Amino acid sequence: MIHKSVIEKFETIRHETDLCVVGGGIAGMLTALSAARHGARVVLMQDRPVLGGNASSEVRMWIRGAHGDNMRETGILEELALENIYRNPTLNYSIWDSVLYGIIQYQDNIELILNCSCNAAEMDGAMIKSIKGWQTTTQKWHEVRATLFADCSGDSVLAPLTGAEWRMGREARSEFGEDIAPEQSDNCTMGMSCLIQARETGRKVTYIPPKWAKNYDEDDFPFRLDLRTRDAWTTGNFWWMELGGVNDSIGDTEQLRDRLLEIAFGVWDFIKNSGACDADNWELDWVGFLPGKRESRRYVGDYIMTQEDVRAGGRFDDLIAYGGWTMDDHHPEGFDTREQPTIYHPAPSPFGIPYRCIYSKNIDNLLFAGRNISVSHTAFSATRVMATCGLVGQAAGCAAAIAIRDRILPRDVYHTNIEELKQMLMDDDCYLPYNKRSIPELTQRAELTADGEPAPVLINGVDRPVGDTQNCWEGACGAEIIVDLKREAPVHSVRIVFDSELNRESWRELNHEIKLYPQHCNVFADEKDVYVPQALVREFRIEGARDGEWVELYRECNNYQRLVRIPVEGTYSKIKFVPEKTWGAETVKLFALEVQ
């Protein structure tokens, strides 16, 4: 027991802010960034030394999301991917960590607190007044008082601290009429994994397992390790080394980690030394000592999304994000069962996720984002992947910014500002299925031409291909796209959406997994570097017409992002955009060009 007198000897650092985000995984990062970029002051408390959660160098789970052509998640998530591609062509995890760290640490309006674990909350009725966390590196307490709180911790640490309603485990089939749910409810969840990564070398490498590693033979990996060819194992990330679904996936984490490490080093021993795999020149490059978790507490919001909502495509009026992963329900016994480790129940791509699933039913100033949103276990099996979690995080941050600005609560945003929230997200390049982005009034009144021909597609409110409709203008470098305002008017900014190749078409020689998101698993000796998608416009200029004369307002020589906003304060009668060079494509594709 720690006596109160001892606790009081440690310094308490106090913070006052608009929004406190607990958890710095992908969902928490995007919550903090979107809120800060829309004017809210944010404190982000993260219990690890790096950001990214399961996608960080500590866990190294691939970011995954919606299946299918042109279904890549954009917004801040695509911004992160493109920054990593540009800065980190070998996909080094330390540089990836720096990409995530830099975008948070050097963003205006965000105060980052690392190595700080939230463990207390002060309440005022149904409102959270403050939270408190212990920072291991400084031996200090951090107390954060905020107007709103967002729990993006994965394990929903604020639920037991605040009395927020939550669920854990699998609902009975009868509760929501879900035919893939078990007959009886139980406490089972999906498990956790300690992943491993291997690297191919130019020489034979010896591996001597620790004495405590498990011993395996070929019969120990049914439905898991592909041994049809001697090198087929090289394309997987060993996600099936999973435990914890029949345990307490929070309280038993340390013991489960110990077992997972015994499994991990034993699996590599089998690959290296059994003769069943062609692994002589491969070495164990990295082992995760921090388990990556899939499931624990899920909050209860004003709405619980279910299996049937997923199957129906989630056509909610308050749709603020989308998924497109299958209902991928892992066996709770994980590595301990000889049955299939997971069953992929079909789900449409995309399916919508409603705003009512991301704020608390009974704690008035609490939002949440990530794998802990208000869904049933079966729906969770499709919403839990990190790209989907990131979209929900960006929505939570925008909602928080609106609530802070208008001095209202998260639930009020649903009743009074849901259309504004959706338009804000689409303006920030988040795709919302079944919705169209509103065009600024100044652009609506203008005439858009590209090399003298009308170009209405640039203001159709859809910034990606959908089905057979490309929704983009395509032309040559040097083409002049002109927004004719008909009269001189104040112009504040130009918004452009380029083609970043949502399917990464120009990456023909790169493996499929890297095309889905630029993160490594196993590294081959002849691995090729990633590069900026060739369709992106690298060089462009913007001109404005005033008194019949064109003046250059902006010139860019090294763009590598998809969404670009350029401030051009002034009064102009026309705005001209000229794409001058791509990253390799012969033509330019442009989804949007707007002035406001």
Automatic annotation (TrEMBL):
Keyword Oxidoreductase: yes
Molecular function per GO: 4 iron, 4 sulfur cluster binding; metal ion binding; oxidoreductase activity
Keywords: 4Fe-4S, Iron, Iron-sulfur, Metal-binding, Oxidoreductase
Pfam families (UniProt xref): FAD_oxidored
InterPro entries from the UniProt entry: FAD/NAD-bd_sf, HdrA-like
Protein name (record): FAD-dependent oxidoreductase
